From TrEMBL:
Xref: InterPro entries: ABC_transporter_permease, MetI-like, MetI-like_sf
Keywords, in A-Z order: Cell membrane, Membrane, Transmembrane, Transmembrane helix, Transport
Main location: membrane
Protein name per Swiss-Prot or TrEMBL: Sugar ABC transporter permease
GO biological process, one term: transmembrane transport
Membrane topology type: Multi-pass membrane protein
Organism: Bacillus canaveralius
Compartments where located: Cell membrane
Amino acid sequence: MKSLFSARKLREAGQGYTFMTPALFVLLLFIIGPIFYIIFLSFHKVQLLGNISYDFVAFDNFTRIRGDTRAKIALWNTFKYVIIVVPCQTLLALILAATLNAGLKGQTFFRIVYFLPTLTSSAVLTLIFMWMYNKEGLINNVLDFIGLPTYNFLGDPNIALNAIMIMNIWSTAPFFMVIYLAALQGIPDSLYEAAELDGANVFHKFWHITVPNLRPVTSFVAIMGLIGTFQLFDQSYIFSAGSGGPDNSTLTVVLLVYQYAFKTLGTMGYAAALSFLLALIILIATLLQRKISKEESLY
């Protein structure tokens, strides 16, 4: 009887793994395989054109990062972008969700309007904002019309990255707004009614009921924001035509990886080392965020 039971369990397990095979194959081919290949490349000097060769260089690609000025600039630009964009897009998403959840008229219309940027291609949004940021674009025309100074958003190193930040905060917040909105509708109305009986105003209810109950969702939004912002590439590439300019002000780590991997011969291994370093930074940042969120959830 025991052997029959074991045979049935083995058969069921075999059937389960059979159904999982396509997904496991895709996971191995497009995720796990490339990860190990990147690790392999990061320890080699790679020649992929002509006579393909892999020359083992140990940690030379990683030590090279310390002396690479452009790598330091890219890391700083990326960190600055993450530190500013993640809190701003999270806060904006929460405010939009709380506003839409307040029972205002025309909620459906505003939800659609707010969510439209998320449905638009990132490349298309970037091109639209480039037109708006142009010297003769919409923003400068409005500023000039009301008598304010105009700016060279695309050509000023002090402004270019900030212009990308504004665009991404505006375009990514609606996605997280929908997540917050779903979570808000799960908070019992009885909590707010009890707070009203105790004399709590709108701010007190928001700070002492809404925010604590949304902490798990805020953790998820922050982690997703961290992962996404660390991988900034397309907007920076389109804004600067792939150069990271002006004066490396929009150069990010992923854009630098692209330049070393596909624009410079003989530096594929170095590009792999940079990408491995970025993956490690994202992992550490994500783990720290999870730890902070776990501590806060004990509220």
